[in-house]
Write a structure and sequence with these properties.
This protein has six helices and eight strands. It has helices at residues 2-6, 14-29, 89-99, 110-118, 157-168, 192-218, and strands spanning 39-46, 49-54, 68-72, 103-107, 124-128, 145-151, 177-180, 184-189. The radius of gyration is 17 Å and the shape is globular.
């Protein structure tokens, strides 16, 4: 047993696992990661790229220490004895490669799901004028105008990863996150606190936009 523990790919990642489990509990409580939805990751190494990502089909409100998978830049587990990683692992790899982020978080909130469908034909959502925009990394004024692109949902994750990478390749985009239609939000940050804050900011803004639509519909 000691040999098994010593050779586990998760050895030395106690802090990372603890942080990701804490995020899972918080997002579950907020209704952003219910059931087995969502997936979270953090970068172990940028060169060569390796990330720690949640295993597939796990209750994010009750993640256990072994509910994580260590994968390489192709999204493949670094050892065969690990569980299956999230089906969307490649999206975490792409975000880490193109943004330099150390933590990537994906949520399935009600508002993100509804708005991603409502605005899909426009290609994305413009968000501007809200004080809470200053909670996004490097944003210093409420006059900021944030573009959140929306990609169509698909089970072809390699194809979706290519679409996302093409958007990342445009330096003028300066993205903080993106949506997948009828699915949810992807965002990231240099550390756990920053990435968690970005989720909180986006979810607040999405709810504001959704409630504004409701008020206008009643007017």
């Amino acid at each position: 047993m000691n040999q098994s523990i010593a050779t586990s790919p998760l050895v030395g990642l106690d802090n990372e696992i603890r942080e990701l489990r804490s995020i899972g509990k918080l997002f579950y409580q907020r209704g952003w990661s219910v059931g087995t939805s969502s997936n979270f990751s953090c970068v172990i190494s940028h060169s060569p790229l390796e990330i720690l990502v949640t295993a597939s089909g796990k209750d994010k409100g009750d993640l256990q220490n072994d509910d994580f998978v260590r994968v390489d830049r192709k999204g493949k587990p670094v050892s065969a004895e690990q569980p299956k990683s999230s089906a969307e692992t490649l999206l975490h790899v792409v975000a880490a490669e193109y943004t330099g982020a150390n933590v990537i978080l994906h949520t399935h909130s009600v508002w993100a799901t509804i708005l991603s469908n409502h605005y899909f034909d426009q290609g994305g959502i413009w968000i501007e004028g809200f004080e809470m925009l200053k909670g996004l990394d490097r944003v210093t004024t409420h006059e900021h105008r944030e573009w959140v692109p929306i990609f169509d949902n698909t089970q072809d994750i390699p194809h979706l990863a290519k679409q996302v990478s093409h958007v990342f390749e445009n330096p003028e985009m300066n993205l903080h996150g993106y949506l997948i239609r009828r699915h949810g939000l992807y965002t990231w940050g240099p550390d756990f606190q920053s990435a968690r804050r970005q989720v909180e900011i986006f979810e607040f803004l999405f709810e504001c936009l959704g409630r504004e639509l409701q008020l206008k519909a009643r007017a």
